[in-house]
Write a structure and sequence with these properties.
The chain has 230 residues and is of the alpha+beta class. It contains 4 helices and 7 strands. The strands form 2 sheets. The chain has a 4-stranded antiparallel beta sheet with strand order 3-4-2-5. Strands 1-7-6 form a 3-stranded antiparallel beta sheet, with helices on one face. The longest helix has 29 residues.
């Protein structure tokens, strides 16, 4: 019996020490603030593609490869335009579970701050390529600059709000327990209706009409403070 009592006493003492080690969580308050800015888009992004369907995948692939090579050569001649190849797909076509042919497709992405030059290039490439999507974005460097400013503004608002709450509750100080800072993600490029088949070499395509517009950048700060004991 004495051993059992001793064991219970040791267990209670251990629990008491463990509880003492845990920090008190009284007077904790969670709050959120945000800062936003309307930012003019400054980079144009376009995705163009070439696709062929038929019964001989080798010939289809050769046609796609040559056409994309033609498009890359045209795009690389423009110094202010960034060009990147995207997904390359060779996929079977079925009709009622029967293989009827093959589809080969590849896309390229074009980016530039020179919207007039890129718009003209898109019109030229539409002689043989289709347009999958085109639209404006805020460039990464402009986004970082604005977000850095918004983070500073949001943190300043968080401090002001925390001080206001502490004063309203009759406390002179507070301690920051936890804080999270999040930024908005870049929206996807706006899709357009496009042609799935290549245009003839003689076809002249006017450059697309585009308007830069703006984007709202947002920074949110979520945190928890602990009010000082009176």
């Amino acid at each position: 019996m004495m051993k059992i009592i001793a064991f219970l006493l040791v267990g209670l003492a251990t629990q008491s020490l463990s509880a003492a080690d845990q920090p008190l969580t009284y007077d904790r308050i969670s709050l959120s603030v945000s800062a936003t800015a309307e930012v003019e888009n400054d980079i144009l992004v376009a995705v163009l593609f070439y696709q062929r369907e038929g019964s001989e995948p080798g010939k289809l692939a050769d046609d796609v490869n040559q056409t994309i090579a033609w498009a890359l050569e045209r795009a690389r001649s423009a110094a202010e335009i960034q060009v990147q190849t995207l997904d390359y797909h060779t996929s079977p076509i079925y009709s009622k579970q029967t293989l009827t042919g093959w589809r080969v497709r590849q896309a390229i992405q074009l980016k530039s701050k020179d919207a007039a030059q890129l718009s003209e290039l898109i019109g030229a490439l539409q002689e043989r390529l289709g347009v999958q999507s085109v639209g404006y974005r805020v460039s990464p460097e402009r986004r970082r600059t604005v977000e850095d400013r918004l983070i500073s503004e949001a943190l300043q608002r968080f401090r002001q709000r925390a001080q206001l709450i502490a004063a309203a509750l009759g406390r002179t100080e507070y301690r920051l327990v936890q804080i999270d800072v999040s930024t908005s993600e870049a929206p996807p490029v706006r899709p357009l209706q496009f042609r799935s088949a290549a245009l003839s070499a003689e076809t002249t395509v006017a450059p697309p009409a585009l308007e830069a517009g703006s984007e709202t950048l947002d920074v949110a700060v979520h945190g928890t403070i602990e009010l000082a004991v009176k």
